[in-house]
Specification:
It contains five helices and ten strands. It is α+β, with helices and mostly antiparallel strands. It has a single domain, classed as Pnp Oxidase, Chain A (Roll), CATH 2.30.110.
Length: 176
């Protein structure tokens, strides 16, 4: 995959990409890591920093890595990798080497410990700066509760963006 570094000021990202194409969240380091597919999250600016916010249930194996390590990557893939992402979202790393089974190739990140993936069209490197447990007593829309039949409320992590590499479709300057 032909990725180039993208300055944050040139980064072009439609948050609907998370819902439609999914992202692969990876935490750990190149020796010990886990990844899971996400379709919920947000992107924006808070505390004068650009960030991605991801949510992880405490029952997920990746949760342990998010707690232990201070960085994570978010990787986006072309649609031909949808089956790999489906596998990584449905199997647990507790039960075997799902990364090897997915056919994706881990790749050291230049700015943080968490790896990215060679096949990704987009790799976003983040350093955690805040977390908060979802509190169901704050749901203003009662229908949200249906997402939690086991009452395993997510922990939200805000990660400051510290590096981005991607194809031209994610860059204002490369797309001109």
């Amino acid at each position: 995959m032909k990725r180039q570094d993208i300055p944050l000021a040139d980064f072009r990202f439609d948050p609907a990409y998370i819902r439609d194409s999914w992202l692969l969240l990876c935490s750990g380091d190149t020796r010990s890591y886990n990844a899971m597919t996400i379709s919920w999250g947000s992107y924006g600016q808070i505390w004068n920093k650009m960030f991605f916010q991801v949510v992880v249930r405490p029952t997920r194996f990746t949760f342990n890595f998010m707690e232990k390590y201070d960085t994570f990557t978010l990787c986006g893939f072309e649609s031909r990798f949808k089956n790999s992402l489906a596998l990584l979202g449905s199997k647990s790393g507790r039960d075997g080497n799902k990364i090897a089974e997915s056919g994706l190739t881990p790749l050291a990140s230049p700015h943080i410990a968490a790896p990215g993936f060679d096949e990704a069209e987009l790799i976003i490197e983040c350093r955690k700066m805040y977390w908060q447990d979802i509190d169901n007593s704050h749901f203003l829309d009662p229908s949200i509760e249906k997402n939690y039949p086991q009452r395993d409320y997510h922990r939200a992590y805000f990660g400051e963006i510290v590096g981005i590499s991607g194809t031209e479709k994610f860059s204002v300057s490369m797309h001109r």
